[in-house]
Specification:
The chain is of the alpha/beta class and 332 residues long. The protein has 11 helices and 10 strands. β5 (164-167), α6 and β6 form a beta-alpha-beta unit.
Length: 332
């Protein structure tokens, strides 16, 4: 039977009305969910085992976020692939604000540049805010007799290729910091990648490798005990935590050296704007906590300034890493 135009129009209008009602109900439900956020525990994923600088940052931030949001916030450690496994779990989670990442530059920005197995990029996340940063520190073993950046440059230049520096692994921020030093100064050193900080520390203390790069928090105990010599930190200016250690950039040959290890709070892509706004506000409150500031600064970190424009920050940092990766031809 052929429908009359009137009946066809009426039929179409009925479908439109039902679709509008369905959309209204769905969007109303979504709005109701964001209005009551958070109504259940929040998980903060850290892509490393307990005990490292990212884990410490994640736990301190989780505590203060819980206070600011009036919610339970728990930390889940998911180690592996330089933090990428934990990052991928967050990206696969529902974009509802109940699964977040406290991540570092390795898994957020660097891994994809050096490993073909990492398919995601920072733009796939919803950036919430920068938490803190800390410099890395170039150190010398006692056996070298080197006590300053100038002595380091003169020694390595005197015998190109003879000396080595160690990092915690290929493509880590520590590795990139070492390669930035080489690129800036024109030095030729061999990179020795270790499987983590512990074996690197053992070889530096045993003078089996001449130089090494630590995250400041990892290197400080050995620097303060006199077991290794701090040559300089890797940010443009001296760290407020260690004003007695010069910045490498103070030396003319290293004046453009500026690289740090940083920590960010991220969510899955497409977080609803009301949830994102609540999380940004909660993070800003958390970063004002005296307890948080005390704990992170004691570990070598400097608290990030408020209102960092995250897309610009991540874009500029990634471009910096790409330049180093290309220079050193780093590839896993």
């Amino acid at each position: 039977m052929t429908r009359t135009p009137f009946k066809s129009a009426a039929h179409a209008l009925t479908h439109l009305a039902l679709a509008a009602l369905a959309w209204s109900a769905a969007s109303g439900g979504a709005l109701a969910q964001t209005d009551t956020y958070p109504s259940r525990p929040i998980t903060v994923v850290v892509g490393y085992p307990p005990g490292g600088s990212t884990d410490l940052t994640g736990r301190v931030v989780a505590t203060e976020l819980g206070k600011a949001l009036g919610a339970t916030v728990v930390v889940e450690n998911i180690g592996g692939a330089g933090g990428a496994i934990g990052a991928q779990k967050v990206l696969a989670a529902a974009p509802d604000g109940y699964t977040l990442l406290v991540g570092a530059n390795n898994e957020v920005a660097i891994n994809r540049l050096v490993s073909p197995t990492v398919k995601y990029q920072w733009q796939d996340f919803t950036p919430i805010g920068l938490i803190a940063s800390q410099p890395m520190v170039l150190v010398a073993s006692q056996k070298t007799g080197v006590k300053s950046t100038d002595e380091f440059i003169k020694l390595v230049k005197s015998s190109p290729g003879r000396f080595s520096y160690g990092s915690s692994g290929v493509g880590t921020a520590l590795h990139l910091a070492g390669e930035m030093v080489k690129e800036q100064s024109g030095l030729f050193m061999t990179h020795i990648p270790y499987r983590g900080v512990a074996p690197l520390t053992n070889d530096l203390l045993g003078s089996n490798v001449e130089f090494g790069v630590f995250v400041l928090s990892s290197g400080l105990p050995h620097i303060r005990s006199g077991k290794v010599v701090a040559l300089g930190t890797t940010e443009k200016k001296r760290s407020q935590v260690t004003p007695d250690i010069p910045a490498l950039a103070e030396h003319p040959a290293l004046k453009n050296t500026d690289i740090s290890s940083w920590f960010v709070l991220m969510g899955p892509g497409k977080l609803p704007e009301p949830v994102l706004a609540k999380l940004k506000k909660a993070l800003a409150e958390a970063l004002q906590s005296p307890d948080l500031r005390k704990k992170l600064e004691a570990s070598g970190s400097s608290i990030a300034p408020l209102n960092v424009e995250m897309n610009r920050f991540l874009r500029e940092e990634t471009a910096k890493y790409q330049k180093i990766v290309d220079f050193a031809k780093i590839r896993e």
